[in-house]
Design a protein that fits this description.
About 40% of the residues lie in helices and about 20% in strands. It has helices spanning about 15-25, 35-45, 65-75, 90-100, 110-125, 130, 170-180, 185-195, 205-215, 245-250; strands at about 5-10, 30-35, 55, 80-85, 105, 140-145, 150, 155-160, 160-165, 225-230, 235. Helix 2 (about 35-45) runs parallel beside helix 3 (about 65-75). The protein is globular, with a radius of gyration of 19 Å. Mean pLDDT is about 85; it is low at about 130-135.
Length: about 250
């Protein structure tokens, strides 16, 4: 029998932490609860290989959730992190993604959506193939295009020789585009397979992240040649680039 997936819940509100633990255990997961930021970092430093996902509050005693996530990313760039916070401002969400979170949910939250996000984060985790049965032999580990060199093993990104810092979610999206290059990818598919969210959720997140990829990799982000938006269809990644005439034929729109 396969080992149960192990989830670390970092939450200082005991009643909420116990409620989350109860529901995750009911779903078949092993769960450890930690109520202090520094204690969470210590646990992750000593036992990250035995943890499959972190559910992380932001307002913690000892150390903020942002700092916990940054510390985790210094030792493990692939572990899925789901921030669960009462902070609802756009800048809070942006900062969460910038420090390496994969997803961000606001409190109060719907239990069914929370469980769905946990399930998807674990299913599509890069770590899964390393200690689980899911085959990962077809995963892209290194890729080059248009003066850019990406190493997904070391998380190194070079564009025209310059080192670029990218967040975990940006790298996950980039890898998904590379592994599906040339194909038109519907928005619903990106939401489900990159964000781990229901595909019918109305959000501009894909557009915002694709603008970021264009800013990093396109010579002229206003006239993208590689990361294309296809009208009424989705998105498409073309490593070799597409000229203006071809873009027009593809009916690209911003």
């Amino acid at each position: 029998m396969a080992n149960k997936e192990h989830i670390l819940v970092v939450e200082d509100e005991e009643h909420l932490a116990m409620g989350i633990k109860y529901n995750l255990v009911e779903e078949g997961y092993d769960v450890t609860v930690c109520g202090d930021g520094r204690a969470a970092v210590k646990l992750l430093t000593e036992s990250s290989s035995n943890i499959d996902l972190v559910v992380l509050d932001l307002m913690l005693p000892g150390m903020s959730g942002y700092a916990v996530c940054e510390s985790l990313r210094a030792i493990d760039r692939e572990m899925p992190v789901l921030i669960l916070s009462a902070r609802t401002l756009a800048e809070d969400r942006t900062r969460g993604f910038d420090v390496g979170a994969n997803q961000y949910m606001s409190k109060p939250f719907e239990l069914d959506e929370f469980i769905s996000r946990v399930r998807n984060l674990l299913a599509f985790s890069p770590r899964r193939g390393k200690d689980r049965t899911a085959p990962q032999s077809d995963r892209v580990e290194q890729f080059e295009f248009a003066g850019a060199k990406i190493n997904f093993r070391t998380f190194e990104v070079l564009v025209n020789g310059e080192s670029i810092r990218m967040t975990q979610l940006e790298l996950t999206l980039l890898r998904y585009f590379i592994e599906n290059q040339g194909r038109v990818i519907p928005r619903r598919e990106l939401m489900e397979n990159v964000w781990g969210m229901a595909g019918n959720i109305n959000t501009r997140a894909p557009d915002q992240f694709i603008r970021r990829l264009r800013k990093i990799f396109e010579p002229d982000p206003a006239q993208p040649r590689h990361f294309l938006t296809i009208r009424d269809a989705g998105y498409r990644f073309i490593p070799e680039g597409m000229d203006a005439t071809e873009r027009g034929a593809a009916e690209e729109q911003e």
